[in-house]
Amino acid sequence: MSTTVKGVVSLAKGEPTQVTDIVIPEPGKNDVIVKVLSTGVCHTDLSYKNGDIGNNYPYLLGHESAGVVETVGEDVTHVKVGDFVVLNWRAVCGECRACRKGEPKYCFNTHNASKKMTLTDGTELEAALGIGSFAEKTLVHEGQCTKVNPEADPAAVGLLGCGIMAGLGAAVNTGDIQLGESVAVFGLGGVGMAAVAGAKLAGAATIIAVDIDAKKTEWAKEFGATHTIDSTGLSVEQVAEKVRDLTDGFGTDVAIDAVGIIPTFQQAFYSRDFAGRMVMVGVPNLSDRIDLPAIDFYGRGGSLRPAWYGDCLPERDFPAYTQLFENGQFPLDKFVSERIGLGDVEEAFETMKTGKVLRSVVEF
Questions:
Q1: What is the pLDDT of residues 18-75, one digit of tens each?
Q2: Which end of the chain, N or C, is less surrounded by CB atoms within 10 Å?
Q3: Is residue 322 part of a domain?
Q4: Mean pLDDT of 281-293
Q5: Is 213 exposed, middle or buried (0-12, 13-18, 19+ CB in 10 A)?
Q6: Do 8 and 157 fall within a single domain?
């Protein structure tokens, strides 16, 4: 039997979102219905709304969530009714060429629900990142549910579902930061701040936080930054020079671009030490192109790597970081800037643009 609930839908490119009735179908054999407890307002949702990701409107937005399993399909074994879960968009298949090579973090055939949620007139909704959780309930594949400590605050641990895990994983997994290394993070939104916190967790000795917003660079100290740079009006070389000044003239072992625009890419690239590692976790615009002198690419050595979802494995990482949060070792709660209602999502998108929040979180 289907269920009708309220959800936030983007009907057309650039238009304001609407809170409207959506229909949750009966779960397929391996699907589950999750009662959503919290959903973070992520920039990816704004990108869906603005048409920067695709044109498959209407979209059911929201994906950074925690909730409780309410109904399960007949073949579901991964979770049971009543489980407290964080939703993920990397439900690995175990069978694709990446999984067969032992690299499930790159799974090319991740699972989603077998059925579409719809508007009340039957129009199928495209769920953001296969989740669609700006809604009182949502339909996902069982593999998209990762059980975590049920004592944890849903608003905090739900953020592991996307942005915070992306930044944290960019530092710990993709960047492979080692004890005592130096790190620079360029761009201090939620993802960048999570990369700063991840660098501290990994044991970096020098953590340099770079942004054009002096408030954010000051804020970064709470997450572990040992030094900050206000890059307002500075050229790429001037930023790199400031980084070198803080690292004995060499540059950092790891540089993380948490924005995904060409200026921050270049800042990160040139701020590395020779043979240093660069990670790009900010998602670039579809029209951007990387232009570097080939001799600079060759001559600096090291590695340049994109971080997809922070190269995480939800079943391994979500429970571990939830427990670190519960132990007081990782500050997930500090990323929750405000707690809002479902009807406040459109306003939260505008607040996001001001840079005054790391995450607005919808609570149900």
A1: 999 999 999 999 999 999 999 999 999 999 999 988 899 999 999 999 999 999 999 9
A2: N
A3: no
A4: 88
A5: middle
A6: yes
* Terminal C-alpha separation, the chain: 23
Domain count, the chain: 2
**Dist CA 10 CA 125 (whole Å):** 9
- Within a domain: 324: no
Gap between the Cα atoms of 332 and 142, Å rounded? 25
pLDDT at 291 over 90: no
Q: Are 104 and 313 in contact (CB under 8 A)?
A: yes
Q: 156 and 176: one domain?
A: no
* Beta strand ranges found along the chain (DSSP E): 3-10, 18-24, 31-40, 59-60, 64-72, 84-87, 118-119, 126-127, 137-141, 145-147, 182-186, 206-211, 227-230, 252-257, 272-280, 303-306, 338-340, 360-363
Give the separation between CA 210 and CA 235, rounded to whole angstroms.
Answer: 13
Structure tokens at 57: 């409107």
SS3 39: strand
Q: How far is CA 306 from the centre of its chain?
A: 14
CA distances from 298 to 4, 198, 228, 293, 303 (A): 57, 29, 29, 9, 10
Kindly report the average pLDDT of the chain as a whole number.
96
235 lies in some domain: yes
Give the range of the structural domain holding residue 101, as residue numbers without chain letter. Answer: 3-161+331-363
Same domain, 140 and 200: no
How do residues 69-107 score in pLDDT, each as one tens digit?
999 999 999 999 999 999 999 999 999 999 999 999 999
Tell me if 282 is assigned to some domain. yes
SS3 label, residue 130? helix
Coil, helix or strand at residue 303:
strand
Count of other CB atoms within 10 angstroms of residue 144? 30
Residue 32 belongs to domain with CATH number: 3.90.180.10
| Sequence letter at residue 343 | G
- For residue 224, the 8-state DSSP code is T
Distance CA(57)–CA(152), nearest Å, equals 34
